[in-house]
Amino acid sequence: MSEQHNRADLGKDPQRVSGMFDQVAQNYDRTNTVLSLGNDKLWRVATTRAVAPRPGQRILDLAAGTGASSVALARSGAEVVAADFSPGMIAEGARRHGDVPGLSFVEADATALPFGDAEFDTVTISFGLRNVNDPRAALAEMRRVTKPGGRLVICEFSHPQHPLFAGVYRFYNDRVLPLVAKGVSSNAEAYDYLNESIKDWPDQRTLSTWLREAGWTDVAYRDLTFGIVALHRARAPQA
């Protein structure tokens, strides 16, 4: 009997989303590299540079998945907590990277983080905020656990601004990506949800507004790969 695939929808029920990521955890990083045409590695480098980790810092990497981004941060000598609400992702990350110095794995819900106030110098989240059922509550929680003057870095899918490139991108997502996902993913239906969540996600300016409403300051963003992805940055207000 074939395994029943878990597929989230835009209701983003936490249990369904978590279960879906549990099922794709083993091949998740390889599938992302194929579907992004290798750009995921470039986006990770850009995010790491924006975080600018330093020895002695305490960094929270949310929606860390299997910890690929967290390892890059921990290599700086910072203490990195890789958090994800999928136990399957956390287990796979701990299996792969559990021996990396300064890196720990924690199961956590971004809307109710299991950390005290002002624990982290920097909070970062890559390609996970749009999977949270209440992203604005998550932005407020991230601010709560960030030290005054501390930094937030968000790397997330966004919306290309140039009409021609936006059309090409829509064609790839609608026609090409589903076919490739069937060939390389253990749960192709999960990538149907990926498409839906990207289309439903707000543009760069709207997310910037959400950040300001959550109390973040010095809010800014820059587009990566023509706006397929946007890198957002902000600071927690000084005490």
UniProtKB/TrEMBL annotation:
GO BP annotation list: menaquinone biosynthetic process; methylation
Gene3D superfamilies, alphabetized: Vaccinia Virus protein VP39
GO molecular function: demethylmenaquinone methyltransferase activity
Entry superkingdom: Bacteria
InterPro entries: SAM-dependent_MTases_sf (IPR029063), UbiE/COQ5_MeTrFase (IPR004033), UbiE/COQ5_MeTrFase_CS (IPR023576)
Keyword Amino-acid biosynthesis belongs to the record: no
Reactions catalysed according to its record: a 2-demethylmenaquinol + S-adenosyl-L-methionine = a menaquinol + S-adenosyl-L-homocysteine + H(+)
The protein's enzyme class: transferase
Enzyme Commission designation: 2.1.1.163
Keywords from the named record: Menaquinone biosynthesis, Methyltransferase, S-adenosyl-L-methionine, Transferase
Pathway assignment: Quinol/quinone metabolism; menaquinone biosynthesis; menaquinol from 1,4-dihydroxy-2-naphthoate: step 2/2
Keyword Methyltransferase: yes
NCBIfam families the UniProt entry points to: MenG_MenH_UbiE, PRK00216.1-2, PRK00216.1-5
Family, as annotated: Belongs to the class I-like SAM-binding methyltransferase superfamily. MenG/UbiE family.
Protein function: Methyltransferase required for the conversion of demethylmenaquinol (DMKH2) to menaquinol (MKH2).
Protein name: Demethylmenaquinone methyltransferase
Taxonomic path: Bacteria, Bacillati, Actinomycetota, Actinomycetes, Micrococcales
